[in-house]
Design goal:
It is built from 15 helices and ten strands. The chain is of the alpha/beta class and about 400 residues long. The chain has a single domain, classed as Aldolase class I (TIM Barrel). Strands 4-5-6-7-8-9 form a six-stranded parallel β-sheet. A two-stranded antiparallel sheet has the order 1-2. A two-stranded parallel sheet has the order 3-10. Helix 1 packs antiparallel against helix 15, helix 4 runs parallel beside helix 5 and helix 12 crosses helix 13. It is globular and about 65 Å long. The chain starts with 9 loop residues before the first helix and ends in a 36-residue tail after the last helix.
Length: about 400
């Protein structure tokens, strides 16, 4: 058993997950596209935002409780939609959803999850969110939306920045495919992960639960590959967003906004919230970090729509800085995946505990007891946006590890 009390930061969870999760699935989460420059910038640019320390202020009665998309939350953090979560740990989506519910934050289930909408609803209850990719098969999309309604999902998160797939070198080198390639290197690596293997042998959930059995002709992982290869719809447009909003009828959050112009279009579409996001650096390499893009979007539409952000959140300090710049919600992806890979449900809970404690403590040091009173004034003058200089150049083809 892992003594989680000795896990003090998200980096500790990452290192433990790297030891316990098979390389192809660990790398799937811990990677960006091409040079991974945007992936690194997402995290690094937070370091340029300096905080103002205040003293001799009564710090009793602190609260980080707010609302995200109309839902009360213990802190402005949701678990982001991440594909293949159930391959980081057996029944991963169920375990993460249970941890999120117990902590009082939203869990967002990906279309490309291993556990199905119905699986998660049976264990986490109503209120979790569902993320939708737009496929060419509109009949499938309609049925997917209806399934999310029937499961009691509290919001639909529509991802807009994956009409086509960015290239991630590590996935190609590792032979990550549908189904994964049983290469000698992968089999040897699996032999070093007995904890993971035993968990997978003990569950029936080892394929895309929202798709297999719900699409004509797709009955297993073998014939799923041909279907998915042609399904992400490059024709996606704002008219589709409006159609999905009408079909769904509930809270709609659009994810993948990096420009004020697109933010204004999100407002016009009728969305209830938007997520400033570059897909964790996994799509357009060379794009700015999400935290760099955030202030201009907040200034453009923050009074008309609820602005959230993801990409690069690794600590409670990151959450506080994003909040100070106008984000009224943040999402963690890799941070909770590393907790899941490290120690299952308890690891996800530990990730949330770490982030919440850092958020609460840092807020106090900045002179506040209520998160909803925090604004840009907690940031050191002149550091309200990361500097404009480019990151150092890196090789276009990172060495495999």
């Amino acid at each position: 058993m892992t003594d989680l009390s000795k896990i003090t930061c998200i980096e500790d969870l990452r290192l433990l997950a790297k030891r316990r999760v098979p390389r192809m699935f660990y790398d799937y989460a811990d990677s960006g596209s091409y040079t991974e420059g945007t992936y690194r910038a997402n995290q690094d640019d937070f370091k340029h935002l300096l905080l103002r320390q205040r003293v001799a202020i009564n710090m009793e009665g602190r609260s980080t409780a707010v609302h995200m998309a109309g839902q009360p939350v213990a802190m402005p953090v949701a678990l982001a939609p991440t594909g293949l979560t159930g391959m980081q740990h057996a029944d991963g989506e169920i375990l993460a959803a249970r941890a999120a519910k117990a902590f009082g934050v939203p869990f967002t289930l990906s279309t490309m999850s291993i556990c199905s909408i119905e699986d998660v609803a049976a264990h986490a209850g109503q209120g979790f969110w569902f993320q939708l990719y737009v496929m060419r098969d509109r009949d499938f999309i309609e049925r997917l939306i209806d399934r999310a309604k029937a499961a009691g999902c509290g919001a639909l998160v529509l991802t807009l920045d994956l009409q086509i797939l960015g290239q991630r070198h590590k996935d190609i080198k590792n032979g990550l495919s549908t189904p994964p390639k049983p290469t000698l290197a992968n089999l040897l690596n699996l032999a070093t992960k007995p904890r993971w293997v035993m968990g997978m042998l003990g569950t029936r959930r080892r394929q895309f639960g929202n798709i297999v059995g719900h699409v004509k002709g797709v009955s297993d992982m073998g014939n799923l590959a041909a279907w998915t290869a042609d399904q992400f719809d490059p024709r996606l447009n704002w008219g589709d967003v409006e159609w999905i909003k009408r079909r769904w009828g509930g809270k709609l959050i659009v994810k993948g906004i990096m420009e004020p112009e697109d933010a204004r279009l999100a407002v016009d579409s009728g969305a209830d919230a938007l997520v400033v996001s570059n897909h964790g650096g996994r799509q357009l390499d060379g794009a700015p970090s999400a935290i760099r893009a955030l202030p201009a979007i907040v200034d453009a539409v923050g009074s008309q729509i609820e602005v959230h952000m993801d990409s690069g959140i690794r600590s409670g300090q990151d959450v506080l800085k994003a909040w100070a710049l106008g984000a009224r919600g943040t999402y963690i992806g890799r941070a909770f995946l590393w907790g899941l890979g490290a120690a299952g449900e308890a690891g996800v809970t530990r990730a949330l505990q770490i982030i919440h404690k850092e958020l609460d403590t840092t807020m106090a040091f900045c002179g506040h007891t209520q998160l909803n009173q925090v604004d840009r004034h907690i940031l050191w003058p002149g550091t309200t946006a990361p500097p404009a200089q480019p990151s150092p150049a890196h090789s276009a083809c990172p060495a495999p590890h």
